[in-house]
Amino acid sequence: MRSAEHLKKARELGGSERAGVEKIQAMLQDLQDRSMLKTLERTSYAVEHKHTFSSCRGNLRITAEGVEFKTGDTDHSFYETYNTIRSFSVEGTAFQSARGTTRSTTSG
Ligand SMILES: [Zn+2]
Questions:
Q1: For residue 105, is it within any domain?
Q2: How many angstroms is it from 47 CA to the middle of ligand 1?
Q3: What is the count of structural domains for the chain?
Q4: Distance 33 CA to ligand 1 centre (A)
Q5: Mind listing the pLDDT tens digit for each residue in 17-69?
Q6: Less Cβ crowding at N or C end of the chain, within 10 Å?
Q7: From ligand 1's centre to the CA of 10, what distance in Å?
Q8: 35 with 75, same domain?
Q9: Same domain, yes or no, for 65 and 86?
Q10: What's the DSSP call for residue 82?
């Protein structure tokens, strides 16, 4: 966070060029996004995995590369990168997902 503070200071002092200020703001935004992502990566959320007729419970973790779900209830634990995941939707603490490579085993 030290670098973010430094950039904030630089912005307060005022860049001589407007483009410079915008660049700093963009960098700040980027740093904030990264720190948010870091927080997300450290945190796993208790979620409900929705199936067609039932659900199981586990923990969801969001990383820079994809989504990870871990559960002891069923064998539905998975890790999917944003490249391979076909669909992913969250509703409150419940989520549904569909894989792009293999057929989903979440019919039960
Ligand atoms: Zn499940």
A1: no
A2: 10
A3: 2
A4: 30
A5: 566 777 777 877 887 788 877 777 778 889 999 988 899 999 998 887 888 99
A6: N
A7: 49
A8: no
A9: yes
A10: T
